[in-house]
Design goal:
Elements (H helix, E strand, L loop, with lengths): L5 E3 L4 E4 L15 H13 L6 E10 L7 E10 L4 E10 L2 E12 L40 E5 L16 E3 L5 E5 L11 H9 L2 H4 L8 E5 L1 E5 L9 E9 L4 E10 L2 E14 L1
Antiparallel strand pairs: 1-2, 2-4, 3-6, 3-11, 4-5, 5-6, 7-9, 8-12, 9-12, 10-14, 11-14, 12-13, 13-14
Length: 273
């Protein structure tokens, strides 16, 4: 197994390891690692200790190749209370990913916390739910670099079929997730980096069509964290809907052991294989 998802190779340049390989092609990265790498850049760009990175919106322009990527950054909107920063990722002379992040002022507990949903879901000692079939397709790459604990009620292989018009999936189980590797050697990921690393899997955990018959590729990923998740584990609870024109939408509630901490949103291209 690789020691990290990326190896640094100079200022704002990195080489993706085999741990980034996604389930659709051996030549393309899963969306989680490059999104997390973009979040890292947004947090390090002109940092302000009074602010926290609360929202990251990623647009995936084309498949991110498993190789060298370079980042360029700029501040779009500076401010004392809110700051908007942008990162562009390039590979092989092409722009492959854009990400924008809002950094919002920390108010040190002066605002009452309002939770999303009910009581925290108990953390299972081991996964006892069924994994969607896409998670059984590879013993290497990104899916093998994350620890998955599927909860009962997660969609099983072939849980939904074609020809049903507009379908809506609301998996009751979801999956607890934890990266087995750091993003970069010797670094602990920040809460937003951890969230982006796994939130891109919401559309896979919440699959309502069998991966053997359909592709469902997200073109974007937005993660908003009203509070920072605590600890290594994040629970993904996705809900997916698909229109007959082939556009899908996955909304994923993100929780730690203390309860919900944010949401992820993905727009999907859905098509028969």
């Amino acid at each position: 197994m690789e020691s990290a998802f990326y190896e640094p190779v100079g200022r704002d340049s990195y080489v993706a390891t085999s741990a980034t390989i996604g389930p659709w092609s051996a030549d393309a990265q899963h969306g989680g690692p490059p999104s997390a790498l973009a979040a890292r850049a947004l947090e390090l760009h002109e940092p302000d200790e009074r602010q926290r990175l609360a929202r990251v919106a990623v647009d995936i322009l084309r498949p991110v190749p498993v190789g060298k990527v370079s980042l360029s950054l700029r501040t779009v909107r500076p401010g004392r209370r809110i700051t908007l920063a942008e990162v562009v990722m390039e590979a092989d002379g092409q722009e492959v990913l854009h990400a924008r992040g809002w950094r919002i002022e920390r108010l040190d507990g002066r605002v009452p916390q309002v939770s999303d949903g009910g009581e925290p879901i108990p953390f299972p000692p081991e996964g006892d739910g069924l994994a969607p079939d896409i998670f059984t397709r590879s013993e290497h790459g990104y899916l093998a670099s994350i620890e998955w604990r599927f909860r009962p009620g997660a969609p099983a292989s072939g849980a939904a079929g074609a020809g049903d018009g507009l379908r809506s999936g609301a998996p009751a189980g979801g999956a607890w997730t934890r990266p087995k590797l750091p993003l970069l050697p010797g670094e602990d990921p920040t809460p937003m980096m951890r969230a982006l690393l796994v939130a891109d899997s919401g559309s896979g955990v919440g699959a309502v069509l069998p991966a053997r018959d359909f592709i469902f590729v997200n073109v974007d990923l937005t993660v908003v964290l009203p509070r920072d998740p605590i600890g290594e584990w994040l629970l993904l609870e996705p809900s997916t809907m698909i229109g007959s024109d082939g556009t899908g939408l996955t909304s994923t509630r993100l929780s730690d052991r203390h309860g919900a901490c944010g949401r992820g949103l993905q727009t999907l291209l859905v098509a028969p294989r």
